[in-house]
Amino acid sequence: MINEYNKDLYKEDWRWYEDGYEVTRTSVWTGPGCHNGCGVLCYTKDGKLEKIEGDPNFGYSQGRLCLRCLNMVENIYNNDRLKWPLLRDGEKGENKWKRITWEEAFDWLEETYAKICDTIKNEYGGIGPEGIVALSGTGRNAMWHGAMCLRAVFGSPNMAFGFLSADSCYQPRMTANLMKDGDCWILDASQLHPDRYDNPEWVCPEVVVVWGNEPLASNGDGFMGHWLVDLMRLGTKLIVVDPALTWLASKADVWLQVRPGTDCALALGMLNVIINEDLYDHDFVENWCYGFDELVERVAEYPTDKVAEICWLDEQDIIDAARMYAAAKPAGVQWGLAIDMQIAAMEASFAISDLVAITGNLDVPGGNVLVRYAYNSSKKYGCGLEFIDQDMLDRRIGTEQSPIHKAGYTPFIPPDLLLEAMETGVPYMPQMMWVHGTNPIANMGGDAPRIYRAWKNVPYTVVVDYYLTPTAVAFADLVLPVAMSVERDSFRSWWQPLRTITASAGRYYECKMDEELVLDLGKRFNPKFFNQFNDVHEFLTYMIQDDGYGVDYTFDDLNKKVYDWWDFNETYKKYEKGLLREDGNPGFVTATGLYEIYSPLFDVWGFDPLPQHLEPYESPVRTPELYKEYPYIYTSGHRHIGLFHSEHRQLPTMREVHPTAIADISPEIAEEIGVIEGDWVWFENKRGKCKQQVHIAPGLMPKLVRARHGWWFPEQEGAEPNLYGVFDCNANNLTTMGVYGPTHYGAPYKCSLCKCYKVTEENDCSPSEIVTQGGGFGGNDYTRFEGK
Ligand SMILES: Nc1nc2c(c(=O)[nH]1)N[C@H]1C(S)=C(S)[C@@H](COP(=O)(O)OP(=O)(O)OC[C@H]3O[C@@H](n4cnc5c(=O)[nH]c(N)nc54)[C@H](O)[C@@H]3O)O[C@H]1N2
Ligand SMILES: Nc1nc2c(c(=O)[nH]1)N[C@H]1C(S)=C(S)[C@@H](COP(=O)(O)OP(=O)(O)OC[C@H]3O[C@@H](n4cnc5c(=O)[nH]c(N)nc54)[C@H](O)[C@@H]3O)O[C@H]1N2
Ligand code: SF4
Ligand SMILES: [Mo]
Predict the structure, then answer these.
(1) pLDDT single digits (tens) 657-696
(2) Helix, strand or coil, per DSSP, at residue 788
(3) Burial state string for 294-328 with b = 16 or more CB within 10 A and e = fewer than 16
(4) Which helix (H) or strand (E) holds 331?
(5) Mean pLDDT value of segment 230-254
(6) How far apart are CA 194 and CA 57, in angstroms?
(7) How distant is the alpha carbon of residue 17 from its chain centre?
(8) DSSP 50-72
(9) Rounded Cα–Cα distance for residues 181 and 297 (Å)
């Protein structure tokens, strides 16, 4: 942070020269892999990045950087990086490639595109381009790039997360927000003010509930974990809802060690206390809410003794937490991924939102503030929809079957139904997967072996990435190399502020920026639109201004500013001031204009309009017989600061801090199965198994194991059958595809069952070989589950 000792050291220029270095002040979407974009100073010499520092002038990150940015040099100049386009030169899976030029790559794409369109027309009576499906990963910088390639360049409507079952990352929480109040809320840690904690309007929350989230490791969804530590220093008390004793849980006043997948019941229990003890905000409920009486009836079904039993919690802790949260003025909720990764994702999100609203904490300083993208100008996954006409939209795979998808609350097609199309060829067999920033069989997809099998039915695959991934080796015909963070010009915001990314380092071999790739490809496939741009900067200016309102600057202007904060001149209680609705009236962007505790839209769609507990798909309660065979609760994917999903496994420094897939198991389980720290164990259920190394985690819920996700081994043989060992430690050998709640949102990545036993010489084997050569683990249960 800037203080009196260093204030002359850190400049506000966007570029200067110092001790033989060119210093560029910019933001990066890490090195790479992150939801944020912290302020950095890049020190380059002769176009090479030599070191990187945090920029204390950037109020968002205040000079702090974490491991992944600090280690950027090692990533950028890693010899494993892709250097030029590669065309397959053997069978899929053989890992044999031929170096080609970009011209040759584009020629190949043009020829293949024509074949795809013919097949779709002739064999499926379709239009043609819909045979291409783009798969995207989570929100890194590359977010709109895959969408633009798909829709603006190729003209296809089929875009999905890389088989993220039931869109179970942030989509449920955001959609619940949209249903309830028409916007999204975030915990107000003063991040909307450039002067941060000094802002006179901002109030420090008295209490924050950290719910299914570990922000110190994840910094997810545009929220920086260290803000929470700042708040704690300013006096904020914590309630932590997590089955694991995280660092934050260890500092909490109340730690609710909830049974995975039962968060909705817990929130309903807390609502029960708050309503019955009359601790809610009468003014907000009477003037700004719709359907409170129905909620009163619903929470009566969730008395705290019943909830304690469902959630495996102490009843008094639930009551204490509810009272503490309701009494604090203001109080905020910082929620996370665990809410989405259960079949009751939408239900839990509804109930938690209601807690925020009825306690009067919505859109108040230090509570949960309604937020929009700066200037509305963050291009996202929905990019390029204007290039798709209605006939083509109607050809989307699976969308008809899900009201939320059909109504356009997400620009994605349902990944589970895409998988079914790849298995059955109905409504048509996708002809090409355009994989833009995702590595699905290593990480994103549930039931990875099932995806592996189905994907082999798809004729063509193109992968756009930094590295050769297991997904590329298994399926790709063409691999296109892209530039990393400090080698690219771009812009983005996750909420606020709008930031630029400036290329400070030179081009790495023949890598193109994703931005450049979209433009170059666009000039080939859709010259009518793309020929208006002479260079990437002109294209970026268009992208910034296109759906942004009041943005009159070019990319180069913004670049010199580095970032711009946000355009709302009011931050709080916007619903009172008529600042949310297009018609300028007070209220929320909902049909009733009120915060909808009872959702009329859900009613129309045939969903429960109020929150309700849905017992996890596999659990001691729903499937007691299965629980006898698989006696532990399996959760997966808690974040590690040095690793972003399946990335960074090539980097020696990261492997030093996290050498292999190291899972948490409780001391009780360790004793039961006779393992000690550092042993290897099998996690197994009826879908499959994987092996991971044991860390005995004190304070973990006694019946719980927490597997790590995203593991593959770039140092191992890439060709099949080994495929970089991608199925050996793969947490998603045990997760599901096709299992979700009634809304099609939320899959049980974090709450199923497993058994756990020691890896021995006798039982050791290679799951990668079993999947790539043996057809999988057998015994898979492919019944679709869309129920309660
Ligand atoms: N370093 C790093 N940062 C990342 C990522 C990464 O891979 N690495 N991934 C990014 C992405 S895409 C996302 S979505 C975010 C996610 O980041 P977070 O929202 O922080 O989610 P997780 O770390 O998966 O899990 C958070 C906590 O949920 C707990 N938990 C598990 N099951 C349950 C449950 O059923 N209920 C409750 N209440 N808690 C449960 C876990 O014990 C864990 O402590 O992180 C982002 N940031
Ligand atoms: N079991 C289990 N599985 C999980 C989770 C869990 O908690 N448990 N978490 C899930 C969640 S929340 C998510 S969001 C998904 C995330 O899944 P993904 O977002 O698909 O993450 P990765 O598998 O790491 O794939 C990203 C790929 O994109 C490349 N890449 C990175 N940046 C760029 C870029 O700017 N341009 C291009 N072209 N490529 C880039 C990387 O090198 C990498 O190969 O994983 C999910 N998987
Ligand atoms: S959160 Fe960490 S990895 Fe992400 S941009 Fe900031 S410093 Fe880099
Ligand atoms: Mo995610």
Answers:
(1) 999 999 999 999 999 999 999 999 999 999 999 999 999 9
(2) coil
(3) ebeebbeebebebbbebbbbebebbbbbbbbbbeb
(4) strand 331-335
(5) 98
(6) 10
(7) 37
(8) EEEEE-TT-TTTTT---HHHHTH
(9) 21
Q: Ion ligand 4 — residues with CB under 5 Å?
A: 138, 169
Distant-in-sequence, close-in-space partners of 425: CB < 8 Å, separation ≥ 6 = 457
CB 495 within 8 A of CB 563: no
Tokens read off for 284: 């907000």
Nearest to 73 by CA among 490, 501, 653: 653
Q: Is 69 in the pocket of ligand 3 (CB under 6 A)?
A: yes
Ligand 1 contact via 60 beta carbon (within 6 Å): no
Cα 585 to ligand 2 centre (Å): 41
Residue with tokens 């994907």: 455
* Nearest-angstrom CA–CA distance, 40 and 24: 8
Tell me how far the alpha carbon of residue 617 lies from the centroid of ligand 1, in angstroms. 20
> Tokens 């995702």 identify what position?
438
pTM for this entry:
0.97
Beta carbon of 644 within 6 Å of any ligand 1 atom: yes
Choosing from 444, 461, 511, 754 the residue with most ligand 2 atoms within 8 A of its CB, the one to mutate for a pocket test is 444
Nearest to 440 by CA among 399, 404, 476: 476
Of 93, 86, 90, 135, nearest to 108 by C-alpha is 86
The SS3 of residue 442 is: coil
Determine which residue's CA is closest to atom 34 belonging to ligand 2.
142
Cβ(237)–Cβ(206) below 8 Å: yes
- Ligand 3: which residue has its CA nearest to atom 7? 65
For residue 391, CA distances in Å to 126, 200, 388, 394, 395 come to 10, 52, 8, 5, 7
Q: Which domains does the chain have, with CATH numbers?
A: 86-167+384-500+509-552 (3.40.50.740), 184-371+580-605 (3.40.228.10), 624-774 (2.40.40.20)
List CB contacts of 237: < 8 A, sequence separation 6 or more: 206, 207, 208, 252, 253, 324, 328
Among all chains, which residue has been given the structure tokens 């520092």? Answer: 53
Dist. CA 460 → ligand 1 center (Å): 33
Ligand 3 neighbourhood includes 30 CB (under 6 angstroms)? yes
- Please count the residues of the chain: 788
Q: How far is the CA of 193 from the centre of ligand 3 (A)?
A: 20
Q: Which one-letter DSSP state was computed for residue 327? A: H
Q: What percent of the chain has pLDDT over 70?
A: 98
Q: Which amino acid residue places its CA nearest to atom 23 of ligand 1? A: 638
In tens, the pLDDT along 50-107 reads 999 999 998 899 999 999 999 999 999 999 999 999 999 999 999 999 999 999 999 9
How far apart are the CA of 38 and the centre of ligand 3, in A? 6
Q: Which of 260, 169, 168 minimizes the C-alpha distance to 666?
A: 260
